[in-house]
Amino acid sequence: MTNSAKTSTTHYEVQKKRRAQFIEEWRNNRRTVVHGVDVEIHETPRRISTGVYLGKDGDSPIRTVDAAVHQVTSGVVSTIHRHSWDAVMLCVGGFAWTEIDGKRISWGPGDSLYLPAWSWHRHGNDGDISARYMSFSSEPLIDVLGFGILEDGGDSPVAELPGHPGFAASMPGNDIYARRIRRLAADQIERFNGRLHTSWDELEFLQSPRGTRTTFLLDRAVGYRTSGLTMAMFEIGPGRAQSMHRHSGEAWLYVVEGQGHSFMGPEPDQGEDYEWGKGDLIVVDHYSWHQHFNDDMEKTARVVRVHILDTLLNTMNALCYPLNLLEEPPDHIRSQQTGDLKTIAWPEVERPSWP
């Protein structure tokens, strides 16, 4: 017997219609600035309150990295769970702790944590005030690939829960199969030994040519092994601006302190200005020209940038080669946009405050 798949139209017409429907839905759900005051926070069965900035569960579909805010009230310990994707945490208010595979890490505002895929984790607050953190995860990308799995362990001790998925550790020989086993095992071992926490007190801000003062929060350059998720914090001096540029993929910019506006458009001289303030999320779209301005003449604006670089964006760069998917203005134009960097008055770096 011969099986055959039949449709009433050609594959070209089916796929063309599917692509058009996807793009229409995508455009209808696009956001440029998500204001923190518009994010509804709800209690969850995990005993943590959560609000979605970007993500399917908040009716704002995204396909790369989602963004959410979480609040842990005083005296609360959440349930423990794990998932097949990884996530990063940006702690923005209060003091609490997170347990990752049995290891407890205390944190405060400005700290960053990494939650590896398949790691059991829960959060607790032993203090007198609520604590708050932002999360950014690769769940949308993993979901697109069909590998999204979440497992809840309730209040079980981590020792009673299943361990990480097993893997073949080694095999002798130089054949293709043995080489693959060793390569994948080495990658898993490296990930297990990656960094989990950056304390605010460890950070060192350095002035960049773009007119900002920056520091890595979570990146492979400082010992992390993620799915490509990376976080960096940058400050814009009082009344100053970051130079214009564009790049492949999206970037999420969470405003930790300050107020300002961003220019975004398809061309350097064609676009719109979008205002933002503390607690807002700025969405930099694919390959759009953008420039960020601090509208406060006395205080710095402090922003955390999140994207998925080493995997997804580098793959996009390779797929689109020889197109240049990172563009910056020439030095003489950049200097006009940022002004004399020596004249920027940088205040003392202080731990972020919330609210």
Describe this structure in words.
By secondary structure, the chain is of the alpha+beta class. It has two domains: 13-162, Sandwich (Jelly Rolls); 203-343, Jelly Rolls (Sandwich). The chain is built from five helices and 24 strands. It has helices at residues 11-28, 139-145, 176-192, 309-320, 331-338, and strands at 33-34, 42-43, 49-54, 66-72, 80-83, 87-93, 96-100, 103-107, 112-115, 121-124, 131-137, 150-154, 197-198, 206-207, 212-218, 229-236, 246-247, 251-257, 259-267, 270-277, 281-284, 289-294, 301-308, 326-327. The strands form six sheets. It has a seven-stranded antiparallel sheet. The protein has a seven-stranded antiparallel sheet with strand order 2-3-4-11-6-9-13, with no helix packed on it. Strands 8-7-10 form a three-stranded antiparallel sheet, with no helix packed on it. A hairpin with a 2-residue loop joins β19 and β20 (270-277). The termini are far apart.
